[in-house]
Amino acid sequence: MSKLKYALFTGCTAKQSTPELLSSTLAVADKLGIEITILEEASCCGASHLQDFDEFLAHVLNARNICYAEKLGLTMITICNTCQLNSAMTKHALDTDPDLKARVNEKLAEVGLEYKGTSEIKHFLYCLIDEYGLENIKDKVEVPLSHLNIAPFYGCHNIRPSELHHTSNGGENPYNPTSLDQLIDALEGHPVNYDHKNKCCGFHVELQANHTSEILAGNAMVDAIDNNADIMVTPCPLCHLKMDTYQDDVGKVIGRDIELPVLHMPQMVALALGCTPKEIGLNYHVQKATHLTA
């Protein structure tokens, strides 16, 4: 297999609130021999909030980010579901609307850039599965996760709307996603099947409708716990923040004690590949998870 090379759009969260997501992603790439170039010039994707306020500006910002991957001639990979959605939305809009593309490029010309539409945008989860391959990952496992029941939590923005992600994210079925389950199986863990694995975590309504947000997160975590999950894993840092940080608040709202370690997808892979505790970064979690590397 030829060496895989990608341009990494880290998004804001992996460089601020969840540094363990970035360190574990880079550790996994190093273990698998994947070459990563971080797009240091990239800005925020708009986080699905700027899009509601100024859609054109959001397209300009995301097109600017994509331009840096195009200059490198690489696929742009993401490690956040919301970054994936907003980048893919801009690519789809510009690739199908020549007038919008021309107006965006008029703004990009002010900083010496031009969006061409030559780079694919793909979440790291699907790079591992579709391009590196599950069989190749199996061969690299040093610490099998056979002692863990792992609940996959997919998050909304990696699987919806399906027409956006069909070409880049493996054609995942939003009603019955399987990618995380397959990855857990490849790492010799036991995937937990539960009804809420493809539901919303509530992160994006945290400020506007806090009670609803806590109910959404609580329903998912309790469902996973009731199906014997030891840990939960997600490819989205925003789902991780909601599920890891707010367990006490969520428990008070739904009337149940919740203690469930929630891992980022690259942390789970890094665990199985034998990466160091410092690279995996479980010490950054609010819900205790350091025992997983003990």
What can you see in these coordinates?
The protein has 294 residues and is an alpha/beta fold. The chain has two domains: 5-123, Glutathione S-transferase Yfyf (Class Pi), Chain A, domain 2; 141-284, Rossmann fold (3-Layer(aba) Sandwich), CATH 3.40.50. It is built from 13 helices and eight strands. It has helices at residues 19-32, 50-53, 55-72, 81-96, 98-108, 124-140, 162-165, 179-186, 210-226, 237-245, 247-254, 265-273, 277-280, and strands at residues 5-9, 35-38, 75-78, 121-123, 149-152, 190-191, 231-234, 262-264. Strand 1, helix 1 (19-32) and strand 2 form a beta-alpha-beta unit. The two termini are 34 Å apart. The mean pLDDT is 94. This is Heterodisulfide reductase subunit B. InterPro entries: Cys_rich_dom, HdrB/HdrD_reductase. Keywords: Oxidoreductase.
